[in-house]
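Human: For the file, kindly provide a plain-text protein record giving the amino acid sequence and the backbone structure tokens, at your earliest convenience.
Assistant:
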Amino acid sequence: MKYVPLFTLLGVLVHGVACADSYAGAVAGVSFIRIDSASFDVINAGLAFGHRANNGFGVEFDMRTGVAGDDDDDVKMEMDWQASSYLTYSGVFNRRALLTLGGGYATTRLDSSVQGSAFPGKQDFNGPAFLLRLEEQMINYPNIVLSLSYQHFYLDGDVSIQNASFGVTYDF
């Protein structure tokens, strides 16, 4: 019986996808990675796509790869890839602007090395994800949407992974 609300939510989303607006586009930004006391800023780029129902609920998938790594003292940090999926809700607060909130799951693979060695190497960080995004349709091209996003990916006391990004999507 505890799964009934989950199935109800999935039913609403699946029904909404049938009458939904689909979108796809490109995102680019910076991942702010904090491990213990070291901080890294890794530039990333990728693709995002999803579906949004007329009632505001939707699903979204976001896949990225690191474009440029960062060094902190003798530690080098790079992002191999990052994938996240969200259940979202978007609310219109003027005719062309949306505020989107999402909750989901993300996985990030980081590749780090200390003083040129292969240690600690590739590590996966998996966990809950949170999304906050402001979207604005272009006046002359309403199918093109510009967005600013904040994502928090990994919730652990010693590790924090956050993204700030700019995106351009096309609504089908």
